[in-house]
Fold this protein.
Amino acid sequence: MAYELIVIGTGPGGYVCAIRAAQLGLKTAVVEKSPTYGGTCLNIGCIPSKALLHASELFEEAGHSFAKMGIGVPAPTLDLKAMLNFKQEAIDGNVKGVDFLFKKNKIEGFKGTGKITGAGKVEVTDADGKTQTLEAKAIVIATGSDVAKLKGIEIDEKRIVSSTGALTLPEVPKHLLVIGAGVIGLELGSVWRRIGAKVTVVEFLDGVLPGMDGEVRKQAQRLFEKQGMTFKLSSKVTGVDTSGKTLKATVEPAKGGAAETIEADVVLVSTGRVPYTEGLGLKEAGVKMDERGRVAVDHHYATNVPGIYAIGDVIVGPMLAHKAEDEGVAIAEILAGQAGHVNYDVIPAVVYTMPEIASVGKSEEDLKAANVAYNTGKFPFTANGRAKANQQTDGFVKILADAKTDRVLGVHIVGSDAGNMIAEAAVLMEFGGSAEDLARTCHAHPTLPEAVKEAAMAVAKRAIHM
Ligand code: FAD
Ligand code: NAI
């Protein structure tokens, strides 16, 4: 069967690529080895984690915040099975949505593992071992990423879990030991803490969320500690003894030194993800990889083999669903003869804890390292009317603008709803806007985004409410 495009993998990169290609008139097929479409994001990533974050946040609110608002309800009780079912419904709804969109756009789906067997040839092996070969002018690899393994620690997805197991624990662990204070550790650590677990996070570096703005990292850590999370920084887990009823983790200073033992019921390994290329036949096909095992591509997502392209987590760049989606659109447009493009300077990142942590563009550390002169405007949510009304005043907005041109170079937000607020910063930056542009844009009152406007005013030292 001949197609103009075959996409291997149907995560946010692959399924969006297929839809955009079909919209542009390309005869498109997708190959997916999992029983359902949607990839990591819809099945075991963004969507299920956000469903549990939402449910657990309301659980915590019901227990702690309702009474002071005059809402008298009995102390909430946890029905974990129902909460996990709520999460499953979120997955099912989203996965069905992708099915629907494939049908609507006349995209043919093949369930099985795809292997590139030559120029324009993909062999698909289904669950029963039956194979068929598809042919296409172009192949897009969108096979995503997998959990990074930790040497000497065997993930069984029951007691020693990755994010996948941490989304389906059948009971709340008394003590959850998280390895890695990155996005997954903090999001899923928050979920289980809110519904009753004691959570200890062991982090190799000297702070949480490496890579984010330094001030944001410090504030975030303080807030998570206030919520009851314990951090063991500059430390590493070197082994987990699984022989007893509770797990015994050996924790050492990162630089070496005396070890201590931490007992836990469940250990979550969240030390990053690695590109997934197993079984794709890339070596045989002659496709080059980079030094970190990612598929090497040029600015147009082309590999060194003509007709083979790659996007999403499997190539360079942040492992984020929206980055994969935008690359999916870009490559489809390029293959259809248009000028597809992604602006890597404006990719927002959000940690969906409470408060949320969101950023786009450069951090102060980035700008200092690049010797760029900048002005800073900061505004705390304690001075924002709506945040005060809701009694959700943790956090701040920080805007970094070029000292000469006032162009906004980075925006960082710690606060309730930061993930939604970062969008206006991204739009502004996409248009090359200045802090003054943002400061002179009328924002509805009373809203949290007024803090973004005030931070923009603070760049020129003229914030009103501070
Ligand atoms: P994937 O979504 O990984 O999809 C790849 C697909 O390819 C899979 O379905 C796989 O089965 C299939 N595949 C692989 N090999 C083959 C083969 N040989 N043949 C056929 N099919 C194959 N990102 C965000 O932006 N926001 C979030 O809130 C967020 N939350 C996350 C929470 C968790 C717990 C995790 C683990 C990740 C989260 N991410 C989040 C990251 C996000 O899931 C990824 O960045 C995104 O899924 C990458 O999309 P992708 O299309 O590149 O790959
Ligand atoms: P991460 O890269 O965000 O964090 C890993 C953390 O583990 C880092 O702080 C790192 O210093 C630490 N670490 C590494 N090795 C260690 C060791 N041996 N001992 C102790 N600590 C160690 O990776 P994470 O949290 O696993 O998430 C993977 C990716 O998934 C993220 O980078 C992100 O791209 C994506 N994701 C995005 C989400 C979002 O956008 N909200 C949510 C969840 C995941």
User: Anything to note?
Assistant: The mean pLDDT is 97. The chain has three domains: 2-147+274-335, 160-271, 349-459.
